[in-house]
Amino acid sequence: MWMLPLVMMTAEGCDLTPAEEPVPVPEELTLILEADCGGRAVSHTDYFVYGADGVCPLEYHERVAGDGACTAVYEGRGGDKTVVCIADCPYVLNTETLSRFDAIEALSLALAEDDPDAPVLSGTAVLHTDADGEAEVMVALTPLLCRIEVSRIINEIGGYTLVEDPVLYLKDINTEVELLRTNGFRQKEIGLRSATVTLAHDIGASGIEPHAVFYVYPNDSRESGAGTPATSIVLEGTVRGNKRSFSVPLPPFDRGARISAALTLEAEGATAEFN
């Protein structure tokens, strides 16, 4: 009988309302962002800073001349940030469209818009601000554009057979790619071909060195299904009065790949060595 009032008094004297989480107060952040372009001179560089929470909103953007560092000073909340860096982008980037990280992840570039002499470079990095709201990061940038060269063609068809009026092209090329993608490169559309290169000489027993160069986007498919064909080198010509086509698949190749191929033409097809 004496215990019940004591328990009731104790319960009435306690505040059982859960304490509210303190709302983080924005602070002045100072982020020093640098781009490593592998020693290549670039005309301009875009820096983006995205938050790590929720929809990962865009917090800061700046385009600087060359590959100069960017000092991002703005009001925000400290913590993890994702930095996106794009160099030599051929068009102005719309920050309203790229207001979330998933939007810039989906940003694509068409092969026709890239420049083999100054290909677009891109990369990402993660940073964490310290207690003073400061951080530094170096973002490594790499190109997407790949260079495929047919350096030599050897004729082992036999019987002093000549391959006349030879032309080269690439088949099942990748012509569009997401700027930030690092793997899983696939064609948006199969069956696409590069421009055709007409070789200057017929191919006899001594072979030729055409040094024909093609630029395409990566295709790292390890599958052989119809939906993910390998990019192939194709040589067409006339053999003993008949049209012939020789095709050799390229090995899987990633962003920025540089491949040199030596083709060997044989009676039943063709093989290649890649460097």
What does this protein structure show overall?
With 275 residues, this protein is mostly beta strands. It is 5% helix and 44% strand. A five-stranded antiparallel sheet has the order 3-2-5-7-9, with no helix packed on it. The N and C termini lie far apart (93 Å).
Compact description:
This protein has about 280 residues and is mostly beta strands. It is built from two helices and 18 strands.
Shape: elongated
Overall radius of gyration? 29 Å
Total helices: the number is 2
SS-based class: mainly beta
Q: Give the tally of β-strands.
A: 18
**Poorly predicted spans:** 1-14
State the major sheet: 5 strands, antiparallel
Beta-strand percentage?
35-45%
Placed side by side, the strands forming the largest sheet appear as 3-2-5-7-9
Distance between termini? 93 Å
**Could you report the average pLDDT, rounded to the nearest whole number?**
91
Order of helices and strands: HEEEEEHEEEEEEEEEEEEE
The share of residues in helices is under 10%
